[in-house]
Amino acid sequence: MDNPRPEKVAVVDEVRERMDASDGALLTEYRGLTVAELAELRRELVAAGGDYKVYKNTLVRLAVADTPREGISELLTGPTAIAFVEGDVSAVAKALRDFARANPNLIVKGGVVGATVMSAADIDVLAELPSRETLLAQFAGALSAPLQQLAGLVQALPRNLAYGISALVEQRQSEAPADAAPVADEAPAAEAGEPEAVAEDAGPDTGATPVADEAPAAD
Q1: Is 168 helix (H, G, I), strand (E, B) or coil?
Q2: Claim: this prediction has a pTM higher than 0.70
Q3: Are residues 121 and 164 in the same domain?
Q4: What residues make up the domain containing 85?
Q5: Same domain, 116 and 16
Q6: CA 18, CA 69: separation in Å to the nearest integer?
């Protein structure tokens, strides 16, 4: 058996690498499409996130041989072009479906998403799914109400804490005995032997010496 030519080996390696790197690969038959129609299809697929390339079936079979994608070999009949997808597979499936409706010569045969081989009917189901952006928007919408409630609760925490402290102070004040005078208003009790109190009652200092301490007058 002759060794394959280097250019064929390069194509096989390219297909295998692109299959590995892509989120999906959708197979089509393009028999009967004009050059202008193919160019239009490529533009629409690029806009949807796909790259449309034509390969020989024999080389694609070699690329998927002994891999989980080997099941697509049975789809490799007639002129085959592959739409490689990096991103939203459903968007590319939708673009292929819409183009095929206007151009019946384009036939979507199936494909592979990850390592799962899919039929033409499976691709139709993918085409009916909402886009990734729509799904994310719906998911965000489902979360928005709880998040808004959470934000309101977090915002209300300081306010509710202040109300709680104020209510606690009022409750403690209402529980205090009605006849208890505030401590600040109580007069200090005078103690009998307190020098400060005696000094205050002695009146102003006149400088006179007590009589008991005076010396007797000289004769």
Answers
A1: helix
A2: no
A3: no
A4: 6-129
A5: yes
A6: 12
| Contact between residue 62 and residue 112 where contact means Cβ atoms under 8 Å apart | no
Number of domains, the chain: 2
Name the β-bridge partners of 112. 25, 117
Does residue 80 share a domain with residue 151? no
The domain boundary, picked from 129, 164, 184, lies at 129
Query: Is 18 part of any domain?
Result: yes
Contact in structure between 68 and 43 (CB atoms under 8 Å): no
User: How many alpha carbons fall within 13 Å on the CB side of residue 173?
Assistant: 7
Distance (Å) of CA 22 to CA 17, 107, 120, 129, 152 = 9, 21, 19, 19, 43
Can you read off the two tokens belonging to residue 177? 């005995």
End-to-end Cα separation, the chain, in angstroms: 164
Please write the tens of the pLDDT for every residue from 11-56. 999 999 999 999 999 999 999 999 999 999 999 999 999 999 999 9
**Residue 71 and residue 124: Cα distance in Å, rounded?**
19
HSE at residue 209, side-chain half, CA atoms within 13 A, is 4
Position 6 scores a pLDDT of 80
* Rounded average pLDDT over 95-115: 93
Residue 136 to residue 48: CA distance in whole angstroms: 17
Q: List pLDDT tens digits, range 125-141.
A: 989 887 666 656 655 66
